[in-house]
Specification:
Elements lengths: L1 H6 L9 H15 L4 H6 L2 H4 L12 H13 L2 E6 L4 E3 L1 H9 L11 E7 L8 H16 L7 E7 L7 E2 L2 E2 L17 H9 L7 E5 L8 H15 L6 H37 L9 H10 L15 H4 L21 H17 L10 H13 L3
Parallel strand pairs: 1-3, 3-4, 4-7
Antiparallel strand pairs: 1-2, 5-6
Helix pairs in contact: 5-6, 7-8, 8-9
Length: 372
């Protein structure tokens, strides 16, 4: 066989169909993971851009095989970012390719990919927890979900760890707060604990936490609990959700303030600290990525016109047109004024400009009161 492979050139379509499908899945899954900068430093519209994988344009046979794969695929992926909880682009294509309506109960294997919060935006963790809570709400009453995988993803921009330990964004431990807090992954584990009666659960932690034995022990406990059978957990579930919401509401003001300060620094750097003016549209784009600058105190808040060069009133109302008065016309205006005054003094009936009448009257009164 080895001699045959060495002497004979094998085309891609000479491979068995099952192997080709594995190649298609690997390629499309890789294409569904946007670059780190797009995930963490682009608005949501960039994540929802039109997706047309190049593999569909190779030839008709490959197009047909990929489309058939999308109709028979049993693994579906959802992504949780700081902006939203949604299916990835390949999963959306698979759902659209099926004629019947699909729900979570019709998915044999569901993958949940959770991206870490940006290190310079602590409020990201609050938004991620809100999306995880939405995940619990969607899966709570699903009866036929057979396999659930939770994958914590990180990249060169953002990580779930710091110095080998799970990061604690909610308590601002990494931003100068001395309080001992709960890790970001620990908060997510609390939400996942509320999901039970799932036959198979696997939680994958990032490689940066390989040495954190405490978080791995907690992961094993969460997996066991999610696969256990609990018939009446409504009271405990409500208690956990209320406690988590209370902690989020308590931490939100501090997180917003810290995020606002870091966002202001990021906008300052993008605008060369006020030396380079940007358009109002570009500033709005920056604020969609770096939010909460408006919550800063007056002494810390920088107004928009520092970066745009446009005052708030000027952005809504056109500036008034100033009359052009050059130095060359000034002496002529002064001489005409003097001639008008002289004519009024010598002839009181002279038709005078209203602006000069008070001055002329003052001169006439002065002349009447003075002796000749």
């Amino acid at each position: 066989m080895e001699q045959l492979l060495a002497t004979q050139r094998i085309q891609f379509f000479d491979l068995p169909l099952d192997i080709r499908r594995i190649v298609y899945e690997e390629y499309l899954d890789d294409q569904c993971h946007p670059p780190a900068k797009v995930i963490h430093e682009e608005p949501l519209s960039a994540l929802k851009s039109c997706w047309q994988p190049a593999i569909l344009t190779v030839n008709k046979q490959m197009n047909d095989e990929v489309m058939h794969l999308s109709r028979i695929r049993t693994t579906f992926t959802s992504q949780i970012t700081w902006q939203e909880f949604e299916f990835d682009r390949f999963t959306e294509c698979c759902i659209r390719a099926r004629e019947e309506k699909m729900g979570y109960g019709d998915m044999r294997h569901l993958r949940i990919e959770i991206y870490s919060p940006h290190p310079d935006r602590p409020m990201d963790m609050v938004h991620i927890l809100e999306n995880v809570d939405q995940l619990y709400y969607d899966l709570n009453y699903v009866e036929r979900l057979q396999d659930l995988s939770i994958i914590f993803l990180e990249n060169e921009v953002a990580s779930w760890s710091r110095n080998g330990k799970a990061k604690e964004s909610m308590n601002l431990q990494w931003y100068g707060d001395d309080e001992d807090g709960f890790s970001d992954i620990g908060y997510i584990f609390d939400h996942l604990n509320m999901l039970t009666n799932i036959p198979k659960v696997s939680i994958h932690l990032p490689d940066s936490l390989a040495s954190d034995e405490e978080i791995h022990a907690e992961r094993e406990d969460v997996e066991k609990r999610m696969m256990a059978s609990f018939d009446d957990e409504m009271a405990r579930t409500a208690e956990i959700r209320n406690e988590t919401r209370h902690l989020m509401a308590e931490a939100t003001p501090r997180l917003k303030e810290t995020t606002g300060k870091m966002s202001r620094a990021a906008i300052e750097a993008a605008c060369d600290y006020g030396l380079r003016k940007v358009s109002i549209k570009d500033l709005q784009y920056l604020k969609s990525i770096w939010p909460y600058t408006e919550v800063l105190a007056d002494r810390e808040y920088f107004p928009d016109h520092k970066y745009t060069g446009v005052a708030p009133s000027e952005s809504l109302v056109s500036p008034p047109v100033r009359p052009c008065t050059c130095l060359r016309t000034a002496p002529r205006i002064e001489s005409e004024r003097k001639r008008a005054l002289k004519r009024a003094i010598t002839n009181p009936d002279w038709d005078l400009c209203p602006k000069l009448r008070p001055e002329v009257l003052g001169i006439l009164l002065l002349m009447r009161n003075c002796p000749p």
